[in-house]
Give the backbone structure.
Amino acid sequence: MFRKVLERFRLTWKSYRHRFLPWIVLNISKNEKTLRQVKGRREDKLVPDEEVSRSLLHLFRVLDRANGGVELGHFHGQVESAKGRCGRDAMFQSLGFCIDRKPSTLPSAGTGVFVTRGSVPRGATVAMYPGTIYQPYEPILLQSIRNPFVFRCIDGVLVDGNDRGISKMVYKSCSGRDRMGPLETSDTSWLTGTPQNPLAMGQYVNNCSNERPANVCYQEYDVPDTIPVQLRRYLPNVNYSPYSQRPLRCVVLVSLIDITAGEELFANYYTIVH
C-alpha cells in the first residue's frame, strides 16, 4: 500500500515540478542560460506593449467577425466546437501560426503547447496566460493548494491559471460579476477544451530545462483602455476584486527565436537583479 502511494506521489511530482516555482528556481539556477535577468517590470519587455496590443486587437477583431458568423449559422450545441475551429483559423489568418495542447516531449511533464501550423517569428505574441488576477494582499491560499498553475509577476501580482476545482469556480464567478448587461468583459471558454481565444493556453507551456532551451519568455502586460469593450470578451483574465483600481494584468508569452511547426514551446523564468 505504501509503495503504491509513494509511486503515485512520484508520478504526480514529476509532472508538477516543471511548474512548481521553488523547484524551478533551484534547478534552473544551475545553468544561467535558463534564466532571464531583469531589473524590474519595465525591463521585462522583449517587445513594446503597443506591439502586443496591436497583435491582440488584430486577432480579436478577426475572431469577432468569425464568431458572429458561427452564432448565426449553427445550432446552440454546435457553437462551441465551431468557435474552436474558427479560433484556430482566425489565429492563422491574423498571426500566421496556430498553437495547441499536446502531450509534452519533456519526460513526465504532462501537457505541453506546440506550434501546429505555420511559423512564429521572433518577437511575436505566442500565447496568453489565462486566469484570475490577485493583488499581493488578496487571499489565494485555498486556491493555491496542489495548484501548479499560479504564476507570480515581478511586482507580486498572482495569476491563477488552473482550469479546474475551486480556481475554476472563482474565475467563473468573477467573470459573471463583471458582466456589463449583455456584454461579457472576459473569456470563460479557456476553462473548456475549446477556448474561443486560441492564445489562452499559456499556463500549459512548460518551463525550459538545461536540456530544453527556452524559445519563449513571459512578459507582463497591463490591458490599455484602447481595447474596445466589445472585444474584451476575448481577454482570458479577470480581477479577483471588483474594486481594483489598477489596469487588468495579463501575462503574454513572446517568442525569443523563430519557431516552426511541430516545435514545443518552452519558457524561461526571469529573476530580478539589483
Q: What stands out?
A: Residues 15-36, 72-76 have pLDDT under 50 and may be disordered. Residues 49-73 form the longest helix (25 residues). The radius of gyration is 18 Å. The chain has six helices and 13 strands.
